[in-house]
Amino acid sequence: MHDDIDRILFSESAIRARVQALGQKITRDLVGQDVVILALLKGSVVFVADLLRAIDIPVKVDFAWVSSYGHATTSSGKVQLKVFPDEQLRGKTVVLVDDILDTGRTLSEVARRITQDLGAGSLRTCVLLDKVARRVVPVPVDYVGFEVEDVFVVGYGLDFADRYRNLPYIGVLKPALYEGGES
Ligand code: PRP
């Protein structure tokens, strides 16, 4: 385990099993539909790479870049849409994939854009982690990997100051590393 990690919440094998199950459910639910998997950068890159390989129907893949947190440990409350998808979404089934659902601001804003502005035919939301206790904006979530307590989690795509995304498990960051100000 990395020295900066207090404890492991979800091991590599637990994540693998859960992602496989999510992929199978998405496969069953969306078979026969014109599907675009739309992942939000950067946090979802590891998750979506594994999720894609667990989905056994033809899908397209695209990315949007949304940033709301910068390097702070709590949400600034502002959702910035930096880059929107290339893919034509009109009339398609869009599966919006993110690593973590926290206040809900990011997912609700992107969901609104995708349906209202980009004309997606139907929208599904898929997050690996759901920090239910932190929700400010209600967001319907169709596929959830794990519910997670309100602790600072990193790894498997999740970062602190853009670090730790490459850890293969999800762990709790030692508080000493972020206490005393934002990086
Ligand atoms: C994180 C995470 C979600 C969002 C969730 O993104 O990836 O997109 O925050 O928070 P919310 O529910 O309170 O909106 P971040 O802005 O940290 O960017 P990143 O994906 O590049 O890490």
Structural class: alpha/beta
* Tally of helical segments: 3
The major beta sheet can be summarized as: 6 strands, mixed
Corresponding CATH architecture: 3-Layer(aba) Sandwich
CATH class: Alpha Beta
- The level of helicity is 10-25%
Report the span from N to C terminus. 23 Å
Integer count of domains: 1
Estimated share of beta-strand residues: 25-35%
Major sheet: arrangement of strands: 4-3-2-5-6-7
Oligomer: single chain
Bound molecules: 1-O-pyrophosphono-5-O-phosphono-alpha-D-ribofuranose
CATH topology: Rossmann fold
Label the overall shape.
globular
Low-confidence stretches: none
The arrangement of helices and strands along the chain is EHEHEEEHEEEE
Keywords, separated by commas or semicolons:
183 residues; alpha/beta; Rossmann fold; six-stranded mixed β-sheet; three-stranded antiparallel β-sheet; 3 helices; binds 1-O-pyrophosphono-5-O-phosphono-alpha-D-ribofuranose
Characterization of the model:
There is one protein chain. The chain has one domain (12-69, 77-149): 3-Layer(aba) Sandwich (Rossmann fold). The chain is 23% helix and 30% strand. The protein contains three helices and nine strands, in the order E-H-E-H-E-E-E-H-E-E-E-E. The strands form two sheets. A six-stranded mixed sheet has the order 4-3-2-5-6-7, with helices on both faces. Strands 1-9-8 form a three-stranded antiparallel sheet, with helices on one face. The chain is globular. The model has no long low-confidence stretch (mean pLDDT 91). Bound molecules: 1-O-pyrophosphono-5-O-phosphono-alpha-D-ribofuranose. 1-O-pyrophosphono-5-O-phosphono-alpha-D-ribofuranose is lined by residues 40-43, 66-69, 75, 98-107, 159.
